[in-house]
Amino acid sequence: MKALKIAGLSLSALIGILILSIQVSTYHPEPIEDMKVHCSEDAPELQPGQKIKVLNWNVQYLAGKKYVFWYDTSDGSGKDIRPETTEIKKTLQALLRVLKDEKPDIVLLQEVNVGAKSTDYMDQVQAIVTGLSEGYSCYTSAYYWKAEFVPDPNVMGSVGMKLLTISRYKIDAARRHQLSLMPMDIISSQFYLKRAVLEATLPVTDRPPLVAMNTHLDAFAQGTSVMQDQVAEVAEILKTHSEEGQEWIIGGDFNLLPPGWDRSQLHKNDQVFYQENSEISVLFSEFQSSVSEEELNGQAQARYYTHFPNSHIVDAPDRTIDYIFYSEGLNQKSYRVRSEDTRSISDHLPMIGEYTLPE
């Protein structure tokens, strides 16, 4: 009996050490946190009435389009674990080519890896910012996946994934808003993604600031309410900024089809990723979208597709799941998806909108 008691105490100690080590090696953000802003001293301020160009893009950690990764398909046909080093370097240059060609004032990027084993522990934030160099005065970033070691056979190493916002104009503050977590057991949840909104405040001379927000909502959430919860949280953030008299713009990968969109247009393997009634309807009903619900469901809907899935059976962009929403005081001058020369860079396409600030 005494030996059994000692064994029990030893087991409890081992479990305690395991829990502590998991806690220390994984990411546990606060509900709202200030993020570091990197800004040159001579960064210019936005001016009333100024036109700004915004580019939003999920860059898929610079993996390119040669692969079908283990998480990409519902039928388990994706076998690739990581991109080759040469492909990462080539994709970085392709990304920089597009950014330099478009010359956006504000860049909103998702899936930017930092310190991840699968991308050679590369600091992609620094690689992108340094590669852009001239003309971009400020940037801020926030993790939404971070762990020293993930014991998944497809990972078996460190992960690090960020939202990255880059600006030609001054950013004087940034905050990270934690979104609802995917429901799962207490151990698995420690290693899973912590989805967020990254908020950057850009001062406007003699006017309230412009708030630029960047987000990437959950995926593979079938059978849960997490998408509905995250959309509601995003809506609350947007309402708060509007009530405070601030103009705002948000771009991101929302992982949701447009309201009313017919899922049968997708291959049957991909239909399971989405609900019949899209949770994003709340944002369309309460705020201004870069593209209307009618256009996204119309005959020309393909011109607005933003997602080109990694797949053995889909050979072209086939859906819209990325969006830009903006406040009432902003005037959208133009919007487009650049698809003609970007399909080999990511499984998402860059979205570009131009907006005029209030006078």
Describe the structure.
- The strands form two sheets. This protein has a seven-stranded mixed beta sheet.
- Helices cover 25% and strands 27% of the residues.
- With 359 residues, the chain is of the alpha+beta class.
- The radius of gyration is 21 Å and the shape is globular.
- It has one domain: 4-Layer Sandwich (Deoxyribonuclease I, Chain A).
- Helix 2 runs parallel beside helix 3.
Strand content: 25-35%
Identify low-pLDDT runs: none
Query: CATH topology, what is it called?
Result: Deoxyribonuclease I, Chain A
**Helicity range:** 10-25%
Let me know the number of strands.
Answer: 14
Shape descriptor reads globular
Into how many domains do the coordinates divide? 1
- CATH homologous superfamily, by name? Endonuclease/exonuclease/phosphatase
Question: Span from first to last CA?
Answer: 81 Å
CATH architecture group name: 4-Layer Sandwich
Biggest sheet strand line-up: 1-7-8-9-10-12-11
Number of helices: 8
> What is the structural class?
alpha+beta
List the helices and strands in order.
Answer: HEEEHEHEEEHEEHEHHEHEEE
What is the CATH C-level name? Answer: Alpha Beta
> Mind telling me the C-alpha Rg?
21 Å
| Main sheet properties | 7 strands, mixed
Q: Give the averaged pLDDT, no decimals.
A: 94
